[in-house]
Amino acid sequence: MLLIGGEDWGNGGVTQSGIWQLKDENWNQIGELLQADRSGSAIYIGRSIYYFGYDSEAIERLDFNETEELQNVAQIGNQPSNYFYPVLFQTVFNYCI
C-alpha cells in the first residue's frame, strides 16, 4: 500500500510530497513527488502509477521494477485545471464514447 502526498495537519496543513510504502507493517518513505500535492487520484497501469494532483495540477508517473521498488518519478503533463479527487479509469487506445 502506498501513501502519495497529502497534508500535514500537525504543521498547519502544509502540502506534502512524500511517497510512503506500508510493507511488513512498517511505513517507509521510498521517494518524493516532483511537486507537493494533496487530494489527487492515482491509477496503477503496468508497472507505473499515474498520479493526478489537485493543487499542482501536475500529472506524475511513478515507475516500479518487477520487485515493486520505485525506480523513477517523472512529470508527464499538466491538467487544464485543478480537479478534486478525479475519477480515473483505463481504456483502450483511441476509445471514444
Descriptive notes:
InterPro entries: Gal_Oxase/kelch_b-propeller (IPR011043), Kelch-typ_b-propeller (IPR015915). By secondary structure, this protein is mainly beta. It has one domain (2-78). Helices cover 0% and strands 57% of the residues. The protein is built from no helices and seven strands. It has strands at 2-8, 14-23, 26-37, 41-45, 48-52, 58-64, 70-78. The strands form two sheets. The chain has a four-stranded antiparallel beta sheet with strand order 4-5-6-7, with no helix packed on it. Strands 1-2-3 form a three-stranded antiparallel beta sheet, with no helix packed on it. The chain is globular and about 45 Å long. The chain starts with a strand and ends in a 19-residue tail after the last strand. The mean pLDDT is 95.
**What is the count of β-strands?**
7
Report low-confidence residues grouped into runs of 5 or more.
Answer: none
Structural class label: mainly beta
| Rg from Cα | 14 Å
Helical proportion, percent range:
under 10%
Instruction: For the largest sheet, list the strands in their spatial order.
Output: 4-5-6-7
* CA-CA gap between termini: 32 Å
Order of helices and strands: EEEEEEE
> Main beta sheet: strand number and arrangement?
4 strands, antiparallel
**In percent, how much strand structure appears in the residues?**
over 45%
- Indicate the multimeric state: single chain
Give the total of domains: 1
What does the overall shape look like? globular
Number of helices: 0
